[in-house]
Amino acid sequence: MDLTPLILSAKLALVSTILLLLISLPVAYILVYKKIRGKFFIESLVGLPLVVPPTVLGFYLLILMGPKGFLGHGWSALTGSSLAFTFAGLVGASMVQGLPFAVHPIKAAFEKLDVRLLEMSYVLGLTPWQAFFKVIIPNTINGLIAAAILTFAHTMGEFGIILMVGGSIPGKTKVASIAVYEYVENLQYHEAAVMSLIMVAISYVILLAVNYLGRSKVSTP
After folding, report:
1. What is the pTM of this model?
2. What's the burial of 36, exposed, middle or buried (CB within 10 Å: 0-12/13-18/19+)?
């Protein structure tokens, strides 16, 4: 059985998770520690992918990533290649779909941090930027790891938005979830069962890791 779709899924999940963490850290920081107008609307926008059907979200992203779309046209001008139905397009779509899975755990971790630690750091002369790296990050590391794990797991299992934006190009956009769908469609139940079993095993290991982090955090004095 060809394991290329599984490897492609893992690659997509890894790249998307790294980029999402870089974006989600400042977003979560602003939502928790900054007093800005319209914060409610920002929080609702971040959580929108949770309630919008993936195919609907994928449709609009496909329009934006197409040759005449804002993103597609800009990408083509910079790189000379198309964005839709490429790995880069899959990464962009996965980041949109996975944003709340990264932001919400990090935001929850930031909210649980004792504010007195930050106040003390400011008294000691740390700037907000220094406090972020020396106080906030070290004291919320479990939440950051949980966010990374959940984002990775969610991306591994994405289907609807991936199918809309990337299609099923072998070696380029045909990820594991799409491969399972096509195996079943072609009555290749053995291949579908093996691929599904591997994905279930990966998902279980990920859940074990998240639960372990949760238990260790609770038991920490």
Report:
1. 0.89
2. exposed
Which comes out higher in pLDDT, residue 151 or 215? 151
CB 151 within 8 Å of CB 28 = no
Residues 150-205 pLDDT 10s: 899 899 989 999 999 999 999 999 999 999 999 999 999 999 999 999 999 988 88
Share of the chain above pLDDT 70, in %: 96
CA atoms of 5 and 11, how far apart (whole Å): 10
Longest dimension (CA), the chain: 67
Closest CA to 55 of 206, 175, 167, 159: 159
What ranges do the domains of the chain cover? Answer: 4-219
How many helices (DSSP H) and strands (DSSP E) are in the chain? 12, 0
CATH of domain 4-219: 1.10.3720.10
76: left (phi over 0), alpha (psi -120 to 50) or beta: alpha
CA 178 remoteness from chain centre:
18
